[in-house]
Amino acid sequence: MSFISGESRWADVALATSARGFATCGQFLTATTLTLSLQTSGAGGSAVAGMLLAATLPLVALAPLTGRLADRVDSRVLLVGAGLAQSAICLALAYAGHPLLVVGLVALLASGLAVAQPVLAALVPAMVRATDLPRATALNQTAGMLGVLTGPALAGFLVGGFGTRVPLLIAAVGYLALVVAGLLVRTRRGGAPRVAATGGGPSMGADAVERDGDWRLRRDPLLVAMVATLAGVIAAIGAINVIEVFYVRETLGASASVYGLVTGAWTLGVLCGAWIFARVAGRLTDDGALVQGGLLLLGGCCVAVLLSVTVPTAALLVPLWLLGGLCNGGDNVFHNLVVARRVPEAARGRAFAAVGASVQGAAMVGYLLGGLLLELTEPRPLIVGCGVAGLLVLLGFVVPVRRAVRTERSRAGRIPTPVERAGPAGAGPPEAGSSGAGLATSTASG
């Protein structure tokens, strides 16, 4: 759907993905620093859950607005504005003392992320040809996961050596990468006329743009099944975000540095999984196969979480987290590719914002459950419950996903009419039919 028709703009991809990497590093450096600060000061699970909720709620509540902004406002303006605002907020966090002020600033920081995420996600498909999208998606995932990998590890070392202020100041610098990308990236989108011009393909025509503007997630059963499955699994195992720091630091007796390394192991797995499964995704033209493959990969994430309760030391979590991250990275590539293929270019900002809101809303459920349950019991049985609940959710979605895939394949198998073969006015032939924030947001952020 409206991918670039000439050569892919890999220089733009490099700038956008680098910006995502630095900004994500700042995001996770901030989150892990504040989490460690709360745990070290003696705060309980409710305090950690409250901070994570403040970092998540704006992503859900603002999604309808930020998705439309991403489609209607110049991407350059949004990236520069979001980058400057997040950098200033993070700078203020470094000097904030009162807990309520910290929570408020974290919520404002997440509001900037709610703007930047759909803008970057929708820009990448506009930079490359359809055949190059799996590779571009893997690059985007790589940059993000390098940021996720580096952020917690840096926080572990910096908090132990310098306290909380230094890592927060470094995070403030990381957000300026969004400003640099906004100024240097040539590909721009935002507003119906600009989308048609910068997508690299022919102009779509006013009637086609109007149809794209009417796009709704609920009208695509396959997308609905995919997003519902992903959100259900994240709601089931999302409590691990709150539980993990107490499990690693207190139950297993690890240091802050080891906690950062353990958390980074999942992210390293995501990084490897993105490249491994990008090759697989590039060979699959059937969106149903991608969705079903994602179902299996989500199962691998749940199994890794469930097995983590068997380890006697934190170091043995590393191979399990690598395995879970590998599956997580593959699922990220699959579902991002499905979204990019099936959603009209003019509506991709809303699409990625809607998918992100579903995922983050599910993560909020996990955060609440984790914070409440930690007041009642120890981390180890809660992790068992997370893993089992995730597998049960997956079993419950097997039938709906298979039904949606059968419906999709029967629809794709019928002979198209001449109008359908032509596609929307000026749009070219239809494409075979993308944290999330993915599980990396809900299982590796700490």
From TrEMBL:
<feature type="transmembrane region" description="Helical">
    <location>
        <begin position="77"/>
        <end position="96"/>
    </location>
</feature>
<feature type="transmembrane region" description="Helical">
    <location>
        <begin position="102"/>
        <end position="126"/>
    </location>
</feature>
<feature type="transmembrane region" description="Helical">
    <location>
        <begin position="258"/>
        <end position="278"/>
    </location>
</feature>
<keyword id="KW-1003">Cell membrane</keyword>
<protein>
    <recommendedName>
        <fullName>Major facilitator superfamily (MFS) profile domain-containing protein</fullName>
    </recommendedName>
</protein>
<feature type="compositionally biased region" description="Low complexity">
    <location>
        <begin position="422"/>
        <end position="446"/>
    </location>
</feature>
<feature type="region of interest" description="Disordered">
    <location>
        <begin position="410"/>
        <end position="446"/>
    </location>
</feature>
<feature type="transmembrane region" description="Helical">
    <location>
        <begin position="166"/>
        <end position="185"/>
    </location>
</feature>
<dbReference type="InterPro" id="IPR011701">
    <property type="entry name" value="MFS"/>
</dbReference>
<dbReference type="InterPro" id="IPR020846">
    <property type="entry name" value="MFS_dom"/>
</dbReference>
<feature type="domain" description="Major facilitator superfamily (MFS) profile">
    <location>
        <begin position="221"/>
        <end position="446"/>
    </location>
</feature>
<dbReference type="Pfam" id="PF07690">
    <property type="entry name" value="MFS_1"/>
</dbReference>
<keyword id="KW-0472">Membrane</keyword>
<feature type="transmembrane region" description="Helical">
    <location>
        <begin position="222"/>
        <end position="246"/>
    </location>
</feature>
<feature type="transmembrane region" description="Helical">
    <location>
        <begin position="351"/>
        <end position="370"/>
    </location>
</feature>
<feature type="transmembrane region" description="Helical">
    <location>
        <begin position="138"/>
        <end position="160"/>
    </location>
</feature>
<feature type="transmembrane region" description="Helical">
    <location>
        <begin position="290"/>
        <end position="311"/>
    </location>
</feature>
<keyword id="KW-0813">Transport</keyword>
<keyword id="KW-0812">Transmembrane</keyword>
<feature type="transmembrane region" description="Helical">
    <location>
        <begin position="317"/>
        <end position="339"/>
    </location>
</feature>
<dbReference type="InterPro" id="IPR036259">
    <property type="entry name" value="MFS_trans_sf"/>
</dbReference>
<feature type="transmembrane region" description="Helical">
    <location>
        <begin position="382"/>
        <end position="401"/>
    </location>
</feature>
<feature type="transmembrane region" description="Helical">
    <location>
        <begin position="43"/>
        <end position="65"/>
    </location>
</feature>
<keyword id="KW-1133">Transmembrane helix</keyword>
<feature type="domain" description="Major facilitator superfamily (MFS) profile">
    <location>
        <begin position="1"/>
        <end position="189"/>
    </location>
</feature>
